[in-house]
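User: I've been going back and forth on whether these two constructs are worth ordering. Before I decide, could you fold them both?

Assistant: Sure. I'll take them in the order you sent them. The first construct and its structure tokens:
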Amino acid sequence: LGCDLVLVTGAAGQIAYSLLYSIAKGDVFGKDQPLVLLLLDITPMLPVLEGVVMELQDCALPLLREVIPTDKVDVAFKDLDAAILVGSMPRREGMERKDLLKANVAIFKSQGEALDKYAKKTVKVLVVGNPANTNCLIAAKSAPSIPKENFSCLTRLDHNRACFQVALRCGISANSVKNMIIWGNHSSTQYPDIHHCKVNVQGKDVTAFDAVKDDAWLKGEFISTVQQRGAAVIKARKLSSAMSAAKAICDHMRDIWTGTTEGEFFSMGVYSTGNPYGVPEDLIYSFPVSIKDKTWKIVDGLAINDFSRAKMDATAAELVEERDTAVSFLGV
């Protein structure tokens, strides 16, 4: 097997620190797939990055053929098979959302251009850095020679959070909850939808409503808990979710590489144009998807009630506004 070239940006940061070992060990791209890891960060972080490289070397992992730390995009993006874009401008105290968007548009425009210029046209790009949906859209728009379908953003963390909340409520393991959906933006407007969930209780698949037996919780506190979970972690740890974000990144990329099981779907932020759910075109919006041969397909034919429709529309409206603001900075 030839090596897969995998880039992680923001590689000196805390999400990457939780992520790199799992990738290098073979948990994501395959147990026998040799890897070259490219680690990109800003110049002042290079000394820290050297420490990360030393640790990866000291893990003595058989699949890890080479680790290349760099602050140069032409090195980082060359011939990539996968790009995991974790690095972004974090929101500082008192920063306007618009200023945050502007800073990130500059970052993801240049990374999109680098993908366009240097990476394989088959590269799969996962955007994690927030605002992830809009950053992903900007990167995709800045890489016109790479198909839009090759870009996705991370909502698997929200998906995993939602599955666990239902499992906890029912006193079962998290893998007994299948076909959760996160619709929309990776923000507090996201809609965690349990209407199509299958919950395995004592060997039998039932709906989330039948398993939980508390509709008020499912339509209220459950949704707000998942929407606000990131903020709750920051409040408690004084740092954003890293371990759980890294685990979700691994789940997301592994599903792209190995495909999903027949009849099961997961949430990811993908290009909305041509979607069957009346979501506005030209957004990166989280949908339920199934994956085969490294290609995702939005799961079609799911019934959407009025409760769901309103929430799906609200998060879409936020994304349209974010997109329009971000695109206005693209020409600047």
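The second construct, handled the same way:
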Amino acid sequence: MATKKSVGTLKEADLKGKRVLVRVDLNVPLDDNFKITDDTRIRAAVPTIKYLIGNGAKVILTTHLGRPKGVTPKYSLKPLVPRLSELLGLEVKMANDCIGEEVEKLVAGLPEGGVLLLENSHASTEGVAKYLKPSVAGFLMQKELDYLVGAVSNPKKPFAAIVGGSKVSSKIGVIESLLEKVDLLFLGGGMIFTFYKAQGLAVGSSLVEADKLDLATSLIEKAKAKGVSLLLPSDVVIADKFAADANSKVVPASQIPDGWMGLDIGPDSIKSFGEALDTTKTIIWNGPMGVFEFDKFAAGTEAIAKKLAELSGKGVTTIIGGGDSVAAVEKAGLADKMSHISTGGGASLELLEGKTLPGVLALDDA
């Protein structure tokens, strides 16, 4: 995929007095009183907005340029205006609609260095990019592309991927794509039981995708053929039910008794995974090692988060590729220690799978 133009290539001459439409992700959690509980995404958009207003642009912010689902968001963006204004150091104006006379008036009256936030709208990035030139990536998207596309296509080796999550079916594309590039592949989470079962092991009442056993076998064979070290956990933490207060014990992966289910990787696996990760230079992590929502089964996921934070400090490139791993790293309070945390959700998975995204392709090439 061609490198895309970033907002940093636009200078004052390009921006002063110009109206700039910026697609931002302001999907932040609010409590019952509409107070923001985590402003990470708002803060992530600030560098791009500050750069634009610092160069005299008239900035118009819009949120939903994602894949239009045709849903009317039940929340207004109003509760975000005070925090956004505080972070930018200026009063952000708010339009109650995304089109119409009121918006036209507000846009017309927007001063250089002013910011206007449109109420939830539903154009698509791809659609807007066709009509507006230049179309460039913001600093956040630029970083996302640098890491998710750059690191994967040209990693410092040894390159490792850690893939977790409950189902192998949702990660097939990622695993297959990564097998072409990595030196080591670590598997964790619910998907490992499909691999164990494919190898003829008893898995008790653990989660298994019976229709994916052949696929698991073929992925193991593909790893062998490509010389990729595929590491499956040697021991697991099992539970007698799927609950936070279940009885639990550690057993070797080959000795899961009937009626018990695996909900995390065990201490031996944590140790051997850690030792193998110590040898690497680039690590991409997508998906938890266990049911980390239950404290009793969060040890594996927390240990991987801590190990990656430690290796980051030693100069290893650590990329948290979206989804539950991001939540896990944030829960462990280690987000600021990683090289890059992907905020792209499902889109980051597609980038890792080597797919091209229409909203990215529509941007101008560098």
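Notes on the second construct follow. The CA atoms of residues 22 and 61 lie 5 Å apart. Confidence is low (pLDDT under 50) at residues 65-72.
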